[in-house]
TrEMBL record:
<comment type="pathway">
    <text>Protein modification; protein glycosylation.</text>
</comment>
<keyword id="KW-0472">Membrane</keyword>
<dbReference type="GO" id="GO:0005789">
    <property type="term" value="C:endoplasmic reticulum membrane"/>
</dbReference>
<keyword id="KW-0812">Transmembrane</keyword>
<dbReference type="InterPro" id="IPR026051">
    <property type="entry name" value="ALG1-like"/>
</dbReference>
<keyword id="KW-0328">Glycosyltransferase</keyword>
<dbReference type="GO" id="GO:0004578">
    <property type="term" value="F:chitobiosyldiphosphodolichol beta-mannosyltransferase activity"/>
</dbReference>
<dbReference type="InterPro" id="IPR001296">
    <property type="entry name" value="Glyco_trans_1"/>
</dbReference>
<dbReference type="Pfam" id="PF00534">
    <property type="entry name" value="Glycos_transf_1"/>
</dbReference>
<keyword id="KW-0256">Endoplasmic reticulum</keyword>
<protein>
    <recommendedName>
        <fullName>Beta-1,4-mannosyltransferase</fullName>
    </recommendedName>
</protein>
<feature type="domain" description="Glycosyl transferase family 1">
    <location>
        <begin position="255"/>
        <end position="414"/>
    </location>
</feature>
<keyword id="KW-1133">Transmembrane helix</keyword>
<keyword id="KW-0808">Transferase</keyword>
Length: 451
């Protein structure tokens, strides 16, 4: 194991101009720095609970909550200006309230006003600026602008991102494709690829743990409850859910006629087209009704919070479903990890505004041993290998075909189970490298270099 290079303790600052609890990669950075004797101060919004490891280390880890931007009755352009000024002042206030850090690690996006503010702060405080590139700010901004990347505001955002991004002392990014793009188009060469990897929290689980989770969720969601009258006739059953039953000897077994579980996680943002999933599920429903006994009922679980959720819920409620049902829970971190491991197939609709980042939700699913259907884009092959650890699709017809293949005669289809064994083999290889070991190999030396 690499020798601990952070002795004595140093101060580090992590800036997330977003919800800390929904920024897992930056939280993992913080946990790794804490393991190496850093005092970590995190600046960001706290809309959801951060990881327990960060909450319990009060002496070494402090979270500074930014004041949310007030809702003002301005025109869209004035709102954007007001938001930028508010966030700039709020971030400056937080930065100058902390102990002087050796380095500031900034999540990008959002890069405005983060990169500019953090650059000037590091200049004044003689701290090192390190950027972790998850995507590009200007490409995300382009999604909401009529003219897209041709818009003057978008071009100005790109210039700011490029100018201040290029002034950082070190860089991480999430793909080799992004590393190449930063080098070729932004003239930023000192970029280290740090792939997202699952933490040890994301693990395959046994049937007993799945049953315990289903029992817990059955208290809040009727879709997980067993048919009480049917189960009462089975004197050997101690307790049951819609998917499993525990016998009096405490062994657990699947129900023969159980539903299949399809899961997806989302922030409900424009870079995920859930219309594709909805159309694919419509096609699955129609096919399953024509071949009623060959396809199981499907429970589609979509976790997460975000601006487009209500619109999706309205579309679901307008349709009449027979073979497909939906729940959209917000789960704590532990239950989310367990539910991924308990599902039968994952779906990822992330398509990337830049085409250069990778969906972390797929990394989490792979960590739990869950095969994935993922929307295909330019650099997805760096993570998802078709017919090795998952499927890729580019439209709802292709996704529907994958669903029909995976769930036909579920769970006893010989062809499907053979494919599943191939996936399991490759997923086990993927699980051999976790975040901690990957960070120690690729990131620890970079932090030490710039101290």
């Amino acid at each position: 194991m690499m020798e601990d290079l952070f002795l004595p303790a140093i101060n580090a600052c992590i800036v997330v101009l977003g919800d800390i609890g929904r920024s897992p990669r930056m939280q993992y950075h913080a946990c790794s720095l804490l393991e190496h004797n850093c005092n970590v101060e995190i600046i960001g919004y706290q809309e959801t609970e951060p990881l327990e490891e960060l909450r319990r280390q009060h002496s070494k880890c402090k979270i500074h909550c930014l004041t949310p931007v007030p809702d003002v009755n301005f025109t869209p352009k004035l709102k954007l200006i007001f938001k930028t000024i508010w966030q700039s002042l709020s971030l400056l206030r937080a930065l100058f309230s902390i102990n002087r850090p050796k380095f500031v690690l900034v999540q990008n996006p959002p890069g405005i006003p983060t990169l500019m503010i953090c650059y000037f702060y590091c200049l004044i405080m003689r701290s090192k600026l390190i950027i972790d590139w998850h995507n590009y700010t200007y490409t995300i901004l382009a999604l909401s602008l009529k003219d897209g990347e041709r818009n003057l505001l978008c071009r100005f955002a790109r210039w700011l991102e490029c100018y201040f991004g290029g002034k950082a002392d070190a860089h991480f990014c999430v793909t080799k494709a992004m590393q190449m793009d930063l080098n070729n188009n932004w003239n930023i060469s000192n970029v280290t690829v740090l792939y997202d990897r699952p933490t040890s929290r994301f693990q395959p689980i046994d049937l007993c743990k799945k049953h315990d989770l289903f029992m817990k969720l059955s208290k809040s969601y009727s879709e997980f409850r067993g048919e009480i009258r049917d189960d009462l006739d089975k004197f050997w059953v101690k307790e049951s859910t819609a998917f499993t039953e525990k016998l009096h000897n405490d062994s657990v077994q699947y129900k023969a006629d159980r539903k299949a579980i399809l899961i997806s996680s989302t922030s409900w943002t424009p870079d995920e087209d859930f219309g594709i999933l909805l159309k694919a599920l419509e096609a699955y429903e129609n096919n399953a009704l024509r071949h009623f006994r060959d396809f199981p009922n499907l429970l589609c679980i979509i976790t997460g919070k975000g601006p487009q959720k209500d619109e999706f819920v309205e579309k679901i409620e307008r349709m009449k479903w027979v073979k497909v049902s939906f729940i959209m829970p917000w789960l704590d971190f532990e239950d989310y990890c367990t539910l991924l491991a308990a599902a039968d197939l994952g779906v990822c609709l992330h398509w990337s505004s830049s085409g250069l980042d990778l969906p972390m939700k797929v990394v989490d699913m792979f960590g739990c041993g869950l095969p994935v259907c993922a929307y295909n884009f330019k650099c997805l092959k760096e993570l998802v290998k078709p017919h090795q650890n998952g499927f890729v699709f580019e439209n709802h017809q292709q996704l529907s075909e994958h669903l029909n293949f995976w769930f036909e005669k579920f769970p006893n289809n010989t062809n499907t189970n053979a494919t599943k064994q191939v996936f399991i083999k490759h997923l086990q290889e993927f699980q051999g490298l976790r975040w901690r070991e990957n960070w120690n190999t690729h990131a620890l030396g970079i932090f030490n270099k710039y101290l």
